[in-house]
Specification:
The chain is of the alpha+beta class. It has helices at about 65-75, 100-115, 120-130, 135-140, 175-180, 200-205, 215-220, 225-235, 255-270, and strands spanning about 15-25, 30-40, 45-50, 80-85, 145, 150-155, 160-165, 240, 250, 275-280. Helix 1 (about 65-75) packs parallel to helix 2 (about 100-115).
Length: about 290
C-alpha cells in the first residue's frame, strides 16, 4: 500500500487570458471560446516569521532576508520570487549574527531552489553588499575574517568542541556599542592561525586575544558579565562575549558537559536564553531543506 505524504505542496499559478473571444452559445448553455492562455507565478518575495523570537520581528517590513532575496533576484533574473518562512530561534540583536545567517541561508536556498549556478566569490560579494557578517555566513565554514567582514581566508577545521550560548535577555544595539569603542590602532594585525590540535590549544590561543566590543557592551548592559560568570562557574574551558553582544559563549570538551551547563543556567536564570550545541563541522553533510 502506498504511503501518503503528511504534507503535500502543489503550485497553483494564476491563469491569464492574454486574449479571450466569446463566440456562439452552445446547446449545453456554454459558449465557444478562443483564448491565448498563460500561467503567471508570483515574482515577488514574501516572508512569514515563526519560532521563539518571531514576535520581536513583527511589523518589520524590510527584513534582511527579503533584502537578500531581492538583491539576488536582481543579479539572477531567473529567480522570480519565493514564499519564505523564517523560523527565528536565535535572539535578535544578540551578537551571534542571527539576521546575517538568515540572509545567507536565503541566498543559498534560492540558488539551490532555482538550480542557478553562481560563483562562490560572486555570492560572497553580493552578501558583503548587504551586511558585514553575511559573507562569512554564506561561506558557512571556519574562516579568518578581515576588512569589514568581506575578506575571508579559509581555515582548517576547528577541533571538536561543544558550545553553550547564553543571552541574558537583553538586546544591545551594535551601533551604540561601536560608538562607545576605544580603538586600539597601534597594534599590528595578527596572521591567520595554524590548525589547532585540540580544544586546549584553541583556548590557549583565544586567551591571548580579546573582543574589543566586550567592554563597551558591558557598560551598556552590565548583566553580560553575569552570563560570562555563569558559563565559567558551570565548567566552560573558555568564555567570552560574541560580536557586539549580548550573547556569550562557553567552550566545553564534551556534549554532556555543555548540556549540563545549559540546563543549570536555564534553571538558575529562567528568563535567560541558554542553548547547548557543537562547533559546526564543515565536512559534515549539509541539510538540503530550504
Amino acid at each position: 500500500m502506498a504511503i501518503r505524504p503528511e504534507r503535500l505542496r502543489v503550485a497553483a499559478p494564476a491563469k491569464i487570458n492574454l486574449f479571450l473571444h466569446v463566440m456562439r452559445k452552445r446547446a449545453d448553455g456554454y459558449h465557444d471560446l478562443q483564448s491565448l492562455v498563460a500561467l503567471a507565478r508570483d515574482t515577488d518575495f514574501s516572508l512569514a516569521v515563526e519560532g521563539a523570537f518571531a514576535k520581536v520581528l513583527e511589523g518589520e517590513g524590510d527584513n534582511l532576508v527579503l533584502r537578500a532575496a531581492r538583491a539576488l533576484a536582481a543579479r539572477l533574473p531567473n529567480i522570480a520570487g519565493a514564499r519564505i518562512t523564517l523560523t527565528k530561534n536565535l535572539p535578535v540583536a544578540s551578537g551571534v549574527g542571527g539576521g546575517s545567517a538568515d540572509a545567507a541561508a536565503a541566498l543559498r536556498g534560492l540558488v539551490a531552489l532555482y538550480g542557478e549556478a553562481l560563483d562562490a566569490n560572486a555570492l560572497i560579494a553580493l552578501a558583503a553588499s548587504l551586511g558585514s557578517d553575511i559573507s562569512v555566513c554564506v561561506a558557512s565554514e571556519p574562516a579568518w575574517m578581515e576588512g569589514r567582514g568581506e575578506i575571508l581566508t579559509p581555515l582548517a577545521p576547528l577541533p571538536p568542541a561543544h558550545i553553550v550560548l547564553v543571552n541574558p535577555g537583553v538586546a544591545v544595539a551594535t551601533a551604540q556599542v561601536f560608538r562607545s569603542l576605544v580603538i586600539r590602532s597601534e597594534e599590528l594585525p595578527l596572521a591567520p592561525p595554524p590548525a589547532f590540535a585540540s580544544l586546549s590549544a584553541l583556548t590557549r590561543y583565544l586567551a591571548r586575544t580579546r573582543n574589543d566590543l566586550e567592554a563597551p557592551a558591558l557598560a551598556i548592559a552590565p548583566t553580560i558579565q553575569a552570563a560570562l560568570d555563569a558559563l565559567s562557574r558551570n565548567g566552560a574551558a573558555f568564555a567570552r562575549m560574541s560580536g557586539s553582544g549580548a550573547t556569550c559563549f562557553g567552550l566545553f570538551e564534551t556534549a554532556a558537559k555543555a548540556q549540563a551547563a545549559a540546563r543549570a543556567i536555564a534553571k538558575t536564570e529562567p528568563d535567560w536564553w541558554a542553548r547547548a550545541g557543537a562547533l559546526a563541522d564543515p565536512s559534515a553533510a549539509k541539510p538540503r531543506e530550504f
